[in-house]
Design brief:
single chain, mainly beta, 9-stranded mixed beta sheet, two-stranded antiparallel sheet, 11 strands
Amino acid sequence: MTQNDLFGRDLIQRDREWHPPAYAPDYKTSVARSPKLALLSLGNTASELTGPTFGHGDIDPVDSDLLRNYASTGDPIGERIIVHGRVLDENARPVPHTLVEIWQANAGGRYRHRKDSYLAPIDPNFGGCGRTLTDAEGRYAFRTVKPGAYPWRNWVNNWRPAHIHFSVFGTAFAQRLITQMYFEGDPLIAKCPIVRTIPDQRAIDMLVAALDLNASVPLDSIAYKFDIVLRGHRSTYFENRPEGN
């Protein structure tokens, strides 16, 4: 049984030139992480393609609201935003009922992680994590605060652009794709050594969420729209699946 048999969908050949090389010296940690031998292509088994997934009963409605899901003494500090979009396949068809998770730094650029030593303070009312299931049309939405930029030890003065990490599960736990979303108009995007490993500007543009004033809430939250394309010639770049499959 093939993946096409399971889903009844034609799969588009992936474009390997759409994705960055594993070895990129200006992104220093890629030097140690890059493979020394040729990659192997392994097909999924039927059990990997049809394993258990999350259901609506596993997700609390507050899980997608990062303004509320960790707060105990007040609202998180920072610019209130809505991030929304759709999860789509290579033919722009919606991917319904799939688990989407996010994690991010707070408004000061610091993660709630014991190894994050950046001098920005921890926000006691912001956990930085959320999750939701797409609806029947592949739509998702999160409320959160806009994350801050932060320095990182690549070269002497490198700063990561404001970004949110996304994880999307497929039809089973073995199918998980991870990417990052950036914000329209951020000048740090073009200067980031990680972003600059991506060879095609169009691929970079697909990682940038567009300002969406129509979805913004007046006097409350600014909205950004970020669609995720799972595979095909113009799939979203996934950092844990650099071959684009």
